[in-house]
Design brief:
Among the domains are: 146 residues, no CATH class; 144 residues, Histidine kinase-like ATPase, C-terminal domain (Heat Shock Protein 90, 2-Layer Sandwich). Helix content is 54%, strand content 21%. The chain contains 9 helices and 12 strands. The longest helix has 83 residues. The protein is rod-shaped, with a radius of gyration of 49 Å. The relative contact order is 0.06.
């Protein structure tokens, strides 16, 4: 059964996506802010260089004019040229505390605090101020300060902020809708799974009922026929009574096994000699094999008196089931090998036959309940075998090839089950 949180894995992914989207939005706004500031500074620097170069050129011209007219001796002419700088709000040019030019409108002129910090650029309200000192001619030191309009930058910033928030909100809404949709799909999947499990349980009950009916039909027929015969002849028959007792024992054993599976396997392990187990298997199955012309070979590679800790009844039923399947698969005139050996700390039983083999596509399914390739089979035999072996702390594997036979390998811990 998968952990419950896996059913909500998409929620973690969507939450992670929202977090990534949030930080991506913050990063985008940060980059936009830095780019706007950089462009603002570069525009201001370009305007400042332009004004500085124009003033320097003007002063160079004045050197070659003996008596320049009054309108050339001040910087009023620069005002007209500044009209070509649309974002330039104002310019201040100062020489030795004397203001040569001030084009700032009233109320926007920089204060003393701005004059002290404008060297690297400072923004105040809707104006960005940048200043520098320059020496266009020897013994002529000028202080130039400009102010640029930042309303466009602030407008772009507000638009970028709005679009970024809009994209974040829309993306978040889409992710939340996706999460809700996936939640509904998971709920529907659970409902379908529950319905499928219910259908499988009903199918399982139907197969189990058919199996039980099949198992008890023959004993009931024998009981009915025996009772009818004794009723017809009007006397008791010891052989029939004995047969009735045998069939009743079979029914009781079948009932006990079904009840055991309904409550889970409950083992009663005890030390049993391997030779004793194999002798009982011989007595039960070898005569049936011989009648079909099948030879059974037993090879014990350990001490026959060696004991293993198993539940005798359940373990014998598992081994018999495998051998019975081998007999049915061979049909007639074949061989079955039963080998017992020790491998490391495990006791290994190998049951090999030279029958038709098992289709590779079926080898992984043969231990599943109700899987059978026989027309008359119910697919419960090998499932019981696997349950019994695993309940003993062991494992079972199969090796098979078409037309070369099959080998079932049962590995049991040497000490047997602990429960």
């Amino acid at each position: 059964m998968r952990p419950k949180w896996r059913g909500y894995k998409h929620r973690f992914l969507i939450t992670g996506a929202l977090v990534v989207l949030f930080f991506a939005s913050i990063g985008e706004l940060f980059i936009l802010y830095r780019v706007l500031n950089l462009h603002e500074y570069l525009d201001a620097l370009s305007s400042l260089n332009f004004i500085q170069n124009r003033i320097a050129g003007h002063l160079e011209i004045l050197k070659f004019i003996p008596k320049p007219p009054d309108y050339l001796q001040n910087l009023a002419w620069l005002t007209d040229e500044l009209q070509g700088q649309p974002f330039l709000i104002g310019v201040i040019v100062i020489e030795k505390n004397k203001v040569l030019l001030n084009t700032f409108p009233e109320g926007i002129s920089p204060n003393s605090k701005i004059l002290q910090s404008c060297w690297k650029g400072v923004e105040n309200g809707n104006v960005f101020y940048l200043c520098r000192e320059t020496t266009p001619l020897p013994n002529k030191n000028l202080f130039i300060l400009i102010g640029l309009d930042t309303s466009i930058k602030q407008h772009i910033w507000r638009q970028g902020l709005f679009l970024c928030l809009l994209i974040f909100m829309m993306s978040s809404i889409l992710l939340l809708i996706l999460g809700i949709y996936i939640d509904r799909l998971i709920i529907k999947e659970k409902e379908l799974t529950n319905k499928l499990e219910a259908s499988e349980r009903l199918a399982t009950m139907g197969k189990l009922s058919a199996m039980v009916a099949h198992e008890i039909r023959n004993p009931l027929n024998a009981l009915t026929m025996g009772l009818q015969y004794m009723q017809a002849v009007g006397e008791l028959n010891n052989d029939i009574i004995k047969n009735i007792q045998t069939e009743l024992s079979r029914l009781t054993e079948l009932t006990d096994e079904l009840l055991s599976f309904s409550h889970g396997l409950k083992l009663n392990p005890c030390p049993v000699e391997i030779s004793e187990l194999l002798t009982e298997i011989k007595n039960r199955l070898v005569p049936k094999a011989i009648r079909r012309g099948i030879n059974v070979h037993i090879d014990i590679a350990i001490d026959e008196e060696f004991k293993i800790n198993v539940d005798r009844r359940w373990f014998l039923r598992a081994i018999e089931n495998i051998i019975r399947n081998a007999i049915e698969a061979i049909g007639s005139n074949g061989h079955i090998w039963i080998r017992v050996k020790r491998v490391s700390q495990k006791i290994v039983f190998e049951i090999e036959d030279d029958g038709p083999g098992i289709n590779p596509a079926h080898q992984k399914k043969i231990f599943e309940p109700f899987f059978s390739t026989k027309k008359e089979g119910f697919g419960i035999g090998l499932f019981i075998v696997k349950q019994v072996i695993e309940a003993h702390g062991g494992e079972i594997k199969v090796k098979s090839a078409i037309n070369k036979g099959s080998t079932f390998i049962i590995s049991l811990p040497q000490q047997g089950p602990t429960t």
